[in-house]
Design brief:
Elements lengths: L1 E7 L15 H4 L3 H9 L1 E5 L10 H8 L4 H4 L4 H7 L8 E11 L10 E3 L7 H15 L4 E7 L2 E7 L28 H15 L3 H8 L7 E8 L7 H5 L3 E4 L3 H9 L3 E3 L12 H13 L4 E6 L1 H8 L2 H26 L3 E6 L16 E7 L13 H6 L3 E2 L3 H7 L3
Parallel strand pairs: 1-10, 1-11, 2-13, 8-9, 8-10
Antiparallel strand pairs: 2-12, 3-4, 3-6, 3-7, 5-6, 11-12
Length: 403
Amino acid sequence: MKYLVLLGDGMADYKNEELSGKTPLELANKPYIDSLAQKGIMGMVKTVPETLKPGSDVANLSVMGYDPLRYYTGRSPLEAASMRVKLLPTDITFRVNLVTLSEEEKYEDKTMVDYSAGEISTEESKEIIKSIAKALNTNEMEFHNGISYRHLLVWHNAEMDFDLTPPHDISGRVVKDYMPKGKYGEIISALMKKSIEILKDHPVNKKRIAEGKNPANSIWIWGEGTAPALDDFKTKFGISGSVVSAVDLVKGIGVCGNMNIVEVEGATGTYHTNFEGKAKAALEEFKKGQDFVYLHFEGPDECGHQGDIKGKIEAIERIDERALKIILEGLREMGEDYSVLVLPDHPTPLSLRTHVRDAVPFILYRSNDEKNNPDVKYTEDFAEKTGLKLAHGYELMEMFLNK
């Protein structure tokens, strides 16, 4: 048996007046996903405990079978693992976003225009972070380059006393009420303010402005954490696994679980990603003998944060047509029984432009145990009406793998 998890980050949503009272999942043309719903079982699963913030870190840990109440130590340490940055027990890590802030003179009066600096390219951001590191690195602090707008800060020998806000939670808002707080809040704030001076005349930003793109005119620091310690995935579940994703956070979970991490050329973490390449990479992992593949697509979540209704629907349709179609055809050709689990990690409602901890709809399909429900589709309502609901996200992996 081969096991595929198809994770559409942030796919679930609320009914939206701009969509005639429907959700993106209800409007998206997704025949291959819907066919799995008709031949499998659907239900709802709670991936984020009430005591934790509804981040992709917590939710993906949960979906991958790790109880976040036991294993979660923060978002950025997982990203550090993906970047192969070695951490000491006394290190604290932070996510560093490259962002676009408005032009007010006082930092606190600026507005969060774009939490991704126009989805800045990795090549451009590498030059930006190089300048940040040259100016701000010390014996205690080190900046590390990541992918696109997502980067890393390691602080040696600090204490966990921070109150930091994700930038995607404050899109379009004045940052004053969301500045870093806690024992070290002023130090973090000072780094962010210094970055304005470093970046205002940076060659990369001058070029981006000339091209009509948002400049990366500030860093925004958040997502603090300490080194994680996950159980080995194969030891925990008895099967070998791979992760196919463009997002350091998700790859980091795989690294910490000693899973195989697959890099795909053109995988961007947006809805412009290389869907076909990621699908073919997942199939190749199965052909190489892997039992389990966690295939992650970030596009619906990015569009949810940006309030991009059309983009979110298209992201779901692209996952269906340009990835799942290829995978299902490939799995059938392999001639071995297979199971597919389709779900988001959390909802990212277009109306809120941030994550919520509501339960999410899932499909569990097995090629050797097909059902016959021709009238259903993969939507929040249909999944809710089944009455099947798991209270803990990590239980779904156990159910999927027959554990």
